[in-house]
Design goal:
With about 475 residues, this protein is mostly helical. The chain has helices spanning about 20-35, 55-65, 90-100, 110-125, 140-150, 195-205, 220-230, 260-265, 270-280, 295-300, 315-325, 330-345, 350-360, 370-375, 385-395, 395-410, 415-430, 435-445, 455-460, 465-475, and strands spanning about 5-10, 35-40, 75, 80, 80-85, 105, 150-155, 160-165, 170-175, 185, 210-215, 235-240, 245, 310. Helix 1 crosses helix 10 and helix 12 (about 330-345) crosses helix 13. The N and C termini lie far apart (about 75 Å). It binds glutamic acid (GLU).
Length: about 475
């Protein structure tokens, strides 16, 4: 059987879109499931879109997500990715072949002419595509003009018939050839366009399956024609469903975060993001939603990828991240939590307290950046109350409770955990308030919240004076 070889072929544009990460992940899972190869190829032939540092952030994002790639030219002892900008001679050779065989032709039309042509087509409500003005220039004349005139090289798309894309996810999709544009293959700056470089590389890199987003489906007939022109066998194609906002419009920046970096800075764990993204278009076929990377590799098949668009539900991602936060080994959680404390300049000045603080927040956060808000109570002299908390605090019964605590608290100079238990017992006995009516107001008064950090831990980090101050604040409210 043919070896499975897939590639992730991003054009570095500055940030890594979650849709790109999904494409990378599905390619990775498919490669690993089939014991094949996962290739990283940087498609950087568009000079006008060059962004400094974009490739580095791409490689960083992949490594953060744990998606290691297999091959590429060796660089400093490690495998580098392939860079198309380093393979320009290869594309040049191939375009010469296409021109010679009559599958490509130089086009000398000026930008102005093309612009007018497009405007006229738009005015007539026609498809915007090259009108073929340079298609039939005799070869000798074309060769002569190429020496002195600027030109692009276009694909000579057959004017009759149809081209069929047999897609592993979408089935057979047919395209009328007369509606396929004579796509530019080489631009006037001499660089190849995406289409030429992509096809040549997929062939030379022996790519067996092209797995990419649905937005590339309309380009695929052009690619298939290129394979025919070269006399090569085309790889198999699988176009992944679109990612949608909650309102089912195409996932856009306007409705939320779309870059991997956006999620990193919020404190989403890579394993949670990967798990979440694995389900954007794929399911195992039962109710299972939490997968380790190894499990995803084991179960992933293209047969189980949907055609329908996948809604990017940020609440689900956050919920899932919360699950991952709570299932981390404790020391790992503490390590990450402490990094966040430091990053937010929230240091109690005492290592044990820092640790206790971070641990107290574990059940209440879904993203690490919530530590900032949740830890605020440890660093302020005045609490702000959530709406629910304020509701509990203003109750008459609560006031009686707080007053009792306030009167008693000085009996316990250190307010240790045991002291706190005794204090609460006494208050309960003397006021007759117990259960929820006792604990909710106390929690509200001491943390400003009705859920979240564990009370005993909070008390141990806050210390007696602070607890006393917060109780006074509640009495005065
Ligand atoms: N360079 C294209 C991109 O930016 C690759 C598309 C493909 O996988 O063929 O997504």
């Amino acid at each position: 059987m043919q070896e499975v070889r897939v590639r992730f072929a991003p054009s570095p544009t500055g940030f890594v879109h979650v849709g790109s990460l999904r494409t990378a992940l599905y390619n990775y899972l498919f490669a690993r499931h089939n014991k094949g190869k996962f290739i990283l190829r940087i498609e950087d032939t568009d000079q006008s879109r060059f962004v400094e540092g974009a490739v580095e952030s791409l490689i960083k994002a992949l490594s953060w997500a744990g998606l290691d790639y297999d091959e590429g030219p060796e660089k400093e002892g490690a495998y580098g990715p392939y860079y198309q900008s380093q393979r320009l001679d290869i594309y040049k050779e191939h375009i010469d072949y296409l021109i010679e065989k009559g599958w490509a032709y130089p086009c000398f039309c000026s930008a102005e002419r093309l612009d007018n042509m497009r405007k006229e087509q738009a005015a007539r409500n026609e498809a915007i595509m090259y009108d073929g003005a340079c298609r039939n220039i005799p070869a000798a004349e074309a060769n002569q003009r190429m020496k002195s005139e600027s030109c692009v090289i276009r694909l000579k798309v057959p004017q009759k018939g149809e081209t069929i894309v047999d897609d592993l996810i979408r089935g057979k999709v047919s395209f009328q050839n007369n509606l396929i544009d004579d796509q530019a293959l080489i631009k006037s700056d001499g660089y190849p366009t995406y289409h030429l470089a992509n096809v040549v590389d997929d062939h030379l890199m022996k790519v067996s399956h092209v797995i990419r987003g649905e937005e590339w489906l309309p380009s695929t007939p052009k690619h298939i024609l290129l394979y025919q022109a070269f006399g090569w066998e085309a790889p198999q194609f699988a176009h992944l469903p679109l990612l949608l906002n909650a309102d089912r419009s195409k996932l856009s920046k306007r409705q939320g975060d779309v870059s991997v970096e956006d999620y990193q800075v919020k404190g989403i764990l890579p394993q949670a993001l990967i798990n979440f993204i694995s389900l954007l278009g794929w399911s195992k076929g039962d109710d299972q939603e939490i997968f380790t990377l190894d499990e995803s590799i084991e179960y992933f098949t293209l047969e189980r990828v949907n055609k329908a668009g996948a809604v990017f539900d940020i609440h689900k991602l956050e919920w899932m991240n919360g699950m991952y936060i709570r299932s981390l080994p404790e020391d790992e959680y503490v390590k990450i939590g402490l990094e966040w404390l430091e990053r937010e300049n929230l240091d109690t000045g005492d290592a044990d307290k820092n640790k206790a603080l971070v641990l107290s927040l574990r059940n209440g956060i879904n993203k690490f950046n919530e530590i900032k808000e949740r830890a605020a109570l440890f660093f302020t002299d005045r609490l702000t109350y959530s709406e629910d908390a304020a509701g509990w605090i203003v109750k008459e019964e609560s006031k009686i409770l707080f007053q009792k605590m306030y009167d008693e608290i000085d009996q316990y100079p250190d307010l240790t955990l045991d002291d706190f238990k005794v204090l609460m017992k006494t208050v309960q006995k003397e006021t007759g308030i117990k259960g929820k009516e006792l604990w909710m107001p106390v929690r509200a008064a001491i943390t400003g919240l009705t859920e979240g950090p564990e009370l005993p831990v909070v008390i141990s980090v806050l210390g007696k004076e602070k607890v006393k101050k917060f109780i006074k604040q509640a009495i005065d409210k």
